[in-house]
Structures are given as structure tokens and as C-alpha cells.
Design brief:
15 strands; eleven-stranded mixed β-sheet; Rossmann fold; 9 helices; two-stranded antiparallel ribbon
Length: about 350
């Protein structure tokens, strides 16, 4: 199975899980060999990759907390330069503590881009979109969305770096013709203006440009802005979910917009209970994520070679759904994603 193959999201769940188990064993072996931080941590926990026969066996591996992530020097989580060289690096916003930085090698970045494109391709209302990308290029999602859409054959115009008060997003959109708009619903740190802000100033913006596809990130979509977009002719709305340490790893279901299909492969996403075991279908728990695969030129999966993260709690909780979805995908879904309150 190729990592960029859309069939990965339609495989029988047991077949996909078998692939994920194989890839996670390989990733752990890579970490043991090339990253002393993880070699020591795994040895102390008594983790032996050969003993991992199912995803449930990952409960033997201690959860990596944000506090531990912050305490580790960034370079201590990267393989030696003889093994891997950082290609893309981005910092978190720091809303829940000191900002942290994650690095992707060239093959890691290729896997993240291909996975994001794999998700977006299911929603594309046109074969060759022309997109205006309002996300800042200093934020992970800015270059990621652009690269993923270009992989799908799109033309992408990126927003300038100028502050909103100096050269507004609305003024920039007037310089281009586009049918796809990449923008959050409301202004958030690092992402310039939101669609709601633009519509306040130009209520006919989407219809005037003939926008057919709106792409943005979860946590910012609200019912009012979605209704306004639909009323102006927007056919497809793609709400994506992820976190700065991993990039995008889930997208809203075309049939059930409140549920997010997980894109497994470049990462492994789990929803776990307090003991670290996977929750059953319909169960609620913490979301933990592992950097899992890079992408070879032929589409084959190889070990993730940048920042090594194994079972990091990303700070969110969600409900896991593994039953059949009416959209035809077998990929598991997340629902009711909420930030986990930070203990006082």
C-alpha cells in the first residue's frame, strides 16, 4: 500500500491497522537506533517493538506530555544529521505554555503534503482549483495548504506578509481571480483576517469572485458563517483538524460535517482512556499522536526522519467513531473535539 494512495482511507479496518502496526514497529526501531532520548525512554519503559502485535499493545508506551516535550531540547528529538536534515520547522503558538518547535525532513514534509492532498481531493468541486491562500506563510498551515493544493494541480496565490492594518486581506483578494478561498472563519493569531471579517466589510465577496470551495481549520467554523458561504454559492466546505506539532491529520466528513475522518499513515492518531488504552467505538478520551512515516518518491512509506514524537497528548479530547460511515470511507472519525482543561 502506497502512503499517498486514496484507497488507504477505504481499506478494511483490520488491513489498515495491520499496516499501522508494521509502520509503528519500524518507527520505534528507528528511534531506538538514531535518537538517544527515545532509546533511553523506551528502555526504561521496557518497550520492545517486536512485542507490539496490535494497536492496543501501544498502551505499554507511556504518554509523552506537552510538559515533557517542552523540557526536551529540540535537537535531542532529531536523529543525527548523518541520518536526517531538517527541511521545514515551525513553532507552536504557545497558548498553553512555552512554544515548542517541530522539524520535518524532506520525506516527512512530502508525506504531510501528500496526506493533506489526499484528504482535500475528496472535497474538490473543480478539477484544477485557483486558490487564494490567506493563511500566513510563517504558520505551518499556510505553506502546507499551498503545497497540498499544488499537488492536486491547483494554482495558489499566497497572501502577502504585510500586517492587516497596512495591506488588508480584503484588498489583496481584489487583485486576484479565484474559485477557492483558504481562510479561517474568524481571525486567529497568525492567520490574518477570517472569512466573517471579510464578509462584514464586503457582504458579496464570495459570490462576486465565484468562490466554490472554502478551506479552513477546525475550531473557527461557525454555523452563521457556513450559512452565509452556502448562500453565496460555495459548494464545498473543508474543515480540517490537526495541531502544530503534526500538521493536519483529519478533515470534516462530506456527509457529516461535524465529524472528522482521520488520515492515518504520516501520523498515527489514537483516542485513549486514562490507562492509555484505546477507547471503543463511541468512547471519549484524549487524542494522542505519533509521527509515523515519510514518503519516498515512489509513494512508499519510510520512517519519519525529523522530530521524533511518540504518543504525544496534543491537549485535546474527542469522541472516537469506528463504525461504517455513509460517505463510504472506513477511516475512523473524531467528533466533539474539545481542549482538555489545564490543571491548576
Amino acid at each position: 500500500m502506497k502512503l499517498d494512495d486514496a484507497a488507504l482511507d477505504r481499506l478494511a479496518p483490520d488491513r489498515r491497522d495491520a499496516l499501522l502496526v508494521e509502520w509503528v514497529r519500524r518507527q520505534i526501531a528507528f528511534m531506538r537506533t538514531h535518537v538517544p532520548f527515545w532509546s533511553d525512554r523506551l528502555a526504561k519503559a521496557g518497550v520492545v517493538q517486536e512485542q507490539i502485535q496490535s494497536l492496543a499493545d501501544l498502551a505499554r508506551i507511556p504518554i509523552f506530555s506537552k510538559e515533557e516535550f517542552r523540557a526536551a531540547r529540540p535537537a535531542s528529538l532529531i536523529p543525527s544529521l548523518a541520518t536526517s536534515s531538517p527541511h521545514v520547522g515551525r513553532w507552536t503558538s504557545g497558548t498553553s505554555g512555552r512554544p515548542t518547535v517541530t522539524f520535518w525532513s524532506r520525506t516527512d514534509w512530502a508525506a504531510l503534503v501528500a496526506s493533506t492532498a489526499r484528504m482535500l481531493a475528496r472535497h474538490a468541486p473543480v478539477p484544477a482549483p485557483i486558490a487564494f491562500n490567506s493563511y500566513g506563510q510563517g504558520h505551518l498551515t499556510g505553506p502546507l495548504y499551498g503545497a497540498a493544493l499544488r499537488r492536486l494541480g491547483a494554482t495558489v496565490y499566497d497572501r502577502s506578509h504585510h500586517p492587516e492594518e497596512f495591506f488588508s486581506t480584503l484588498a489583496q483578494t481584489d487583485l486576484f481571480d479565484f474559485d477557492t478561498l483558504i481562510i479561517p472563519a474568524r481571525a486567529t493569531r497568525g492567520k490574518s483576517a477570517g472569512l466573517a471579517d471579510l464578509l462584514d466589510d464586503d457582504p458579496n465577496l464570495l459570490a462576486r469572485h465565484g468562490v466554490r470551495w472554502w478551506i479552513g481549520s477546525s475550531g473557527t467554523f461557525d454555523e452563521l458563517t457556513v450559512r452565509l458561504a452556502r448562500a453565496q454559492g460555495v459548494e464545498s466546505i473543508s474543515n480540517l483538524y490537526g495541531s502544530s506539532e503534526f500538521g493536519i491529520f483529519a478533515i470534516s466528513c462530506a456527509e457529516r460535517p461535524g465529524e472528522f475522518h482521520i488520515s492515518q499513515g504520516h501520523v498515527l492518531v489514537e483516542v485513549i482512556d486514562e490507562s492509555g488504552h484505546p477507547v471503543p467505538n463511541g468512547g471519549r478520551g484524549r487524542i494522542v499522536v505519533t509521527h509515523l512515516c515519510g514518503l519516498e518518491e515512489d509513494g512508499g512509506a519510510r520512517p519519519h526522519a525529523g522530530t521524533q514524537i511518540l504518543r504525544l497528548a496534543n491537549g485535546d479530547a474527542g469522541t472516537l467513531l469506528t463504525d461504517a460511515c455513509e460517505c463510504g470511507l472506513t477511516a475512523p472519525r473524531l467528533r466533539d473535539i474539545r481542549r482538555v482543561p489545564v490543571a491548576a
